[in-house]
Every structure is written in C-alpha cells, then in structure tokens.
Amino acid sequence: MPPVSHITCDIVVVGTGAAGLMAGLAAASSGARVYVISKMPYQAPSPTTRAYGDITWSEAGTADELFRQVVETGGFLGDQRRVRQFVDAVPAMLNRLRIVGCEFDEPKPAGEGMPGTIRWSYRGVDSGQELLQRLSDASLAVPMWLFAATEVLVHEGAVCGLAAIGLKAREPVIFHCPCVILATGGGAAAFDRTDNPAGATGDGIVMAYEAGAELVDLELISFGYPKERVRDVLERGEELREELLALGYAHYFLGGVRVNSDCESSVRGLYACGEATGGLFGAGRLGGAALADCFIFGERAGHAAAFAAQTSHPVIPDDLPRAAEDRIETVLRGDRKPGPAHERIRQIAWRGLGPVTTRESIERALAELGGIEEELAFTGGAGRDEMRLAVEARQMHTLVRLIAVASLQREETRGCYWRADHPEPGTQSQLRNIILRRARGGCEVTSQPPVMTELTEPTAPRIGAGCFGYTNRSG
Ligand SMILES: Cc1cc2nc3c(=O)[nH]c(=O)nc-3n(C[C@H](O)[C@H](O)[C@H](O)COP(=O)(O)OP(=O)(O)OC[C@H]3O[C@@H](n4cnc5c(N)ncnc54)[C@H](O)[C@@H]3O)c2cc1C
User: How far apart, in whole angstroms, are the C-alpha atoms of residue 407 and residue 402?
Assistant: First the structure.
C-alpha cells in the first residue's frame, strides 16, 4: 500500500459547494486551522455551479410571512426552531455575500409585503462558479485539496479525525482533528434520472450515519417533472407511476443529517450544513431556499466548529486509522471496474424509490440491492475516476438502502412525497419526523413529532409542494 499521509488541524470541511466554502471562510475567519477538501475540483460542475442563482430574499417586515410559507410548503414537517433561525438570518446573509463581492439583480418580492427571491447577476451554464470564486477569493488562506473522504473517525462518541483518499497521489490520508464539517450536498445523483451533475451521491449523509449520527426524513426527496402534467397525472391514478418515471428526475434531498441550531449532529464534533442536512424544510421547499440554507448554515457551522475546536483535543487510538486505511486499500486494489455497479444502484433507486412509490416497489429495491453487495467489495482501481466511483458506489448502496428503510415507515402522501398505495396525508396526530441511527443490530428507526414552536395548527399539505409548484388536493 502507498504510504499514509497524516495531517493535524482543527477542522476539515468536506465539500467545496456553497455550504462548504461558506463554512471554510467562517471557520478560517474565526482563527481555526482549516482544510477544505473535495472529490472534485471546486470549479467542476456541482449542484452549486449549476444552480439558477435564485436565493430567498426577505426584509425584517416580511420574515413572519416567509416563516409561514416555509412551514406550509414543507407540510409542517420542518423544525420550526431552525426555520425561525433561517428566516431571521436572510438579510444578514445577503449582506455578507455582497461584502465578499457577490453581485445581485434587483430583488423580486412575491407581492406587496411579501418575501421573494433575489438572483445573482451571473448568467449561463455553471454560473455558480462565479459565486464560488468570490467565496474562494475571500478565504485566501484556506488550502483546498482534491481528496475523497471515506469515513469520519469517532472515539468515545466524539470526532477525532477523518479518513480520505488523496486522489492525485493515490494515497490514504488521515486527518487528526476534533471537528469535521460535512458539506457534501445531497444524493440526487444516486438516481438514474437527475438534473444533478455526477458526484452528488450523498456520501456525507452515509458517513454521518456510519459515524453514529442521526438522519432525519431521508425518504423526502424532491423530483422535477413538467408542472402542467402533475394535476393530469394525479387524476389518472394507476398510470401515475409509469408516467412520472418516464417524465421526472431527482432534484433535491430534503432529508439528511439531523443537526441542532449550531449545525452539530448527534455525534460531538461532527457538523453538517447545506443539502447534506435534513429537517429544516420538511416535505417541500421554496425555490431559492436551498442556496440560502447553504450560506446561512454554512457560516453558522464554520463559526460553531471553530469555537468547539478551541477546547477539544482528541487523540486517535491506533487501531481506528488502521481499519480505515485497510478499507481504503480495498478501493485502491479493487480489480473490478465500479461503473456497472454504480449504474445498477442508480437504476434500482429510480425504479423503486423514484417520484411515486409503493410498498412493493420499495421492498423490491431492497431485495435488488442485496444482490449486488458482494460485487461491490471488489470494485476499485488506481485511476482517479475509478477511485471516486468505487467510493461513491459503496456510499450509494448504503444511501439507497436507508432511503428505502425510511420510505417503508412513511405511509402517507405529503409535500413532494408520493405513495401510490397511501395517496392521502396522515392525520395531524400521525405527523412525524422519521429518524434513522446506526445501532448494533442494524438500522434503528424511531419517529418524533416535528418541532412546532409557532405554527401549531397544520393546514392540509399541498401535494407536489416544492420548487416545482403546488397542487391542492381539493383541486
Ligand atoms: C439544476 C439545479 C438548479 C438549482 N437552482 C437553484 C436555485 O436557483 N436556487 C436554490 O436555492 N437552489 C437551487 N438548486 C439547489 C442548490 O443548488 C443545491 O441545493 C446547493 O447548491 C447544494 O450546495 P451544497 O454546498 O450543499 O452541496 P454541493 O453543491 O452538492 O457540493 C457538494 C460538495 O461536496 C463534495 N463531496 C461530496 N462527497 C464528497 C466526498 N466523499 N469527499 C470529498 N468531497 C465530497 C463535492 O465534490 C462538492 O464539492 C439547484 C439545483 C440544481 C441541480
């Protein structure tokens, strides 16, 4: 095996999208020694570079209206404490972006006294690169490395490091650090049909789960499809599944790592921000809110981790990195090309867990995943793409299995989540967040009522709610 590199620092930020660069900038400006790593160069296509550039806009006088819209669009599953943090932080977040040199068009309020969106002034495919460039320029001192993270190292319930593959030198890398920030984005590219570029495979969500952190509402995924067809398709029940499988594409993960108001997961020192997290928006989100989430909570995660790192000095026990290095070696030495398994998992996810599901389609996906587990262990190679695909295939296999486990629990249709065999929303007393956690015997599933601090009387959820429009069940 190639020699192992060891790096000591305060914080590793995994991901160089909007959330990761914002977190890196905030952590570095708080004085922490930060490394920012990514399995792709930061200017390569990612959901952030591909974004249209619409960002939630609001003023002090419209914060309550924005709060109501976010909660209602999410079918009342969003954590209202975090939604309040979110809406109150919007004006300062936009100012911060202007200070680092980002340019915006005039805001577009949705009506008089209503919040709306503001669009960045960059145009064209991958115009998000312009914005990332401003954030990167502002965080000059932060080194960025082409590393694929493979696992978070945890000892006695707290982070003590991170294992990664150095994609240039093809070597295992062990970071010794008290804090890791997962800004790895969502997992829409784990589905065969998607508008997300390659690489959005939910790696951080799986790494958090493997490290013992809680995940929330992983079954809630927003799919895009031609808006004008939704009502039509809804009315034709039986044909709905096949029609949406042919028209739709996976777009955005609403579920993910469960975090508190400091963006810390249930594992001490493990933070997450951006699309890798869940629980903020519930079962649907407003257009523009995803980028605002990345900037607001990316910054918060960076500051909180920098503060925590000042007083935490963990030591990695010898056996932990060795086991992680062995797992990396199986990737570097793998003699089966990862491409076919990668593609097969995406197809299984799309057919079984795509825009409209049934118990039968979910159970079929679980059975099919079981059939490729063995093959996965032998995939890998020494090429940069092979290494990345092999890491992704392993992570996606777990991700898709966890989505299936969570989906079996949600027997209702709410927001963007459609179950053909349970076409109505559950009652108010059945309103639950579904929580997954790795336990000794496998995946532990629990559920809790959502945090409702302000709006406590849920209205009827809108079906298909989210950035692709709404359909009221009443018509
Ligand atoms: C076509 C499109 C248009 C959109 N338009 C808008 C819009 O106008 N407004 C809006 O609010 N939202 C929009 N969204 C959603 C929004 O762009 C995303 O939710 C957001 O950019 C996600 O940012 P992020 O930083 O969380 O993750 P990402 O941008 O996905 O970045 C993830 C980073 O993590 C890295 N990474 C992942 N796994 C690993 C690993 N194992 N090791 C190392 N690095 C890793 C990746 O290389 C990448 O650098 C759009 C999405 C798409 C696809």
Answer: 8
Residue 475 has pLDDT above 50, yes or no: no
Whether residue 473 is contained in a domain is answered as no
**Inside any domain, residue 10:** yes
pTM above threshold 0.70? yes
Please identify, by atom number, the ligand 1 atom nearest to the C-alpha of residue 291. 11
CATH number assigned to the domain comprising residue 135 = 3.50.50.60
Q: What is the 3-state secondary structure (H, E, C) of 66-115?
A: HHHHHHHHCCCCCCHHHHHHHHHHHHHHHHHHHHCCCCECCCEECCCCCC
pLDDT tops 80 at residue 38: yes
Domain membership flag for residue 475: no
Q: Write out pLDDT tens, residues 107-157.
A: 999 988 899 999 999 999 999 999 999 999 998 667 789 999 999 999 999
Reply yes or no on whether the pLDDT at 361 is more than 50: yes
Contact residues of ligand 1, CB 6 A cut-off: 14-20, 37-40, 46-48, 50-55, 148-149, 183-185, 195-196, 199-200, 203-204, 252, 274-276, 288-291, 294
Q: What is the pLDDT of residues 182-227, one digit of tens each?
A: 999 999 999 999 999 999 999 999 999 999 999 999 999 999 887 6
Tell whether 474 is covered by a domain: no
Q: What's the number of domains the chain is made of?
A: 1
Q: How remote is the CA of residue 461 from the centroid of ligand 1, in Å?
A: 27
Render 312-353 in DSSP notation, one character per residue: ------THHHHHHHHHHHHHHH--B-SHHHHHHHHHHHHHHH
d(CA 154, CA 152): 6
The residue segments making up the domain with residue 130 are 1-467
Mutational pocket test of ligand 1: of 21, 25, 36, 38, the residue with most ligand atoms within 8 Å of the beta carbon: 38
